[in-house]
Model the fold of this input.
Amino acid sequence: MQTLPRGAPAFLSNCAAYKRYIQDVANGSLTLPPFQQNADGATIIAFGEVYCRLPDCEHRKRAFSATNNLRAHVERHGVAVAPTASGRITQAQKDAVMEFYKKLFEDSDSSEEEVEDEAEDDEEEEEIKDEDEDQ
Done:
């Protein structure tokens, strides 16, 4: 399994979804959604994020060593980045971050299921077509 980035927040070290994020993006089995923006139009980067989500960026599968490096990288693309809260992260913020990583896989898993369902539908249609031709 891939090791966690050096600057990863300690609370994410026991988060299975975060560990899977690190591994699955690197090996290409997870495609990340585009960054979201806040009400001011600034790009939101979650605690612990280390992969760029900007289109056609070489860092989509190559991790930065820390989230701050990702933030600086995104700014070098000319994109405004939302400021992070100063001080200690609250439990509610930690919970929201862990939910963010879990949701990456819920969204990914549901899209994979949709693709599988479509493939099954196509196979069923092909079988029906073959049966009709045999009659």
DSSP finds three helices and two strands in the chain.
